[in-house]
Amino acid sequence: MIKRFGSGTGLLLIDVQVGVNVLEHWGGPTGRRNNPDAEANMASLLSAWRTAGLPVAFTRHDSREAGSPLKFDLPTGNQLPNLEPADQDIVVHKDVNSGFVGTSLEIELRRAGVSRLVVVGFFTNMCVETSVRMAGNLGFDTYLLPDCCATTNRVGPDGVDHDPELVHQMTVANLHGEFCTALSVVDALALLDRDRPDLERVQGNE
To answer: How far apart are CA 177 and CA 80, in angstroms?
Structure first.
């Protein structure tokens, strides 16, 4: 049974910036992404989280790569509409995949009393995945909401263009049960109000 998301449960939004939709940068000439509902799902979740008065944290990415659209000095480095931090939120700036490397994220979450972490954002197989793995390793009771995440196609070294939905699903399969528990946004919203005996927390220890 998963207990209600109470005061110790934080919401972490990873890199919800305009540049995630510059698809040719991420997926090449055939650039495309999955889950067009990700932004709307995140906005609904964020609104509910704020209403419940629970902690919210954001990572913002300022890339080291010269050609990246995720740079603070570019318009594409700005936050996506309806997903902007509020004054009271934790906001950390990063320049690598993990939200925990070279930032104060862990200490700020712990100071806020967060022991359970719900993670959403971009990209499922990049910064979300890396941050989820580290959150699990750091001992946070970690939850991933795949329908509040998205990614792009990836072209392998053999030239094969891998579909974004497949990349997304495979990433979730790798994480669920080992580094986090994957939930739907509907289940997460319900957990703001009550325990869910029909849902099981599954995280490994290898």
So the answer is: 30
Delimit the domains of the chain by residue range: 9-191
Cis, peptide link before residue 123, omega less than 30° from 0:
yes
202 phi and psi angles, rounded to 5 deg: -135, 105
Gap between the Cα atoms of 70 and 150, Å rounded: 16
Q: Is the pTM of this model over 0.90?
A: yes
**CA–CA separation, 113 vs 108, rounded Å?**
9
pLDDT value at position 85? 98
- Domain covering 9-191 assigned CATH 3.40.50.850 in the classification: yes
Read off φ and ψ for residue 71, nearest 5 degrees.
-130, 135
The full length of the chain comes to 206
* Listed residue (119, 152, 156, 121) closest to 134, CA to CA: 119
Pair 11, 120: CB distance under 8 Å = yes
Q: Please say whether the beta carbons of 15 and 59 come within 8 A.
A: yes
Low-confidence ranges of the chain (pLDDT < 50): none
* pLDDT recorded at residue 204: 75
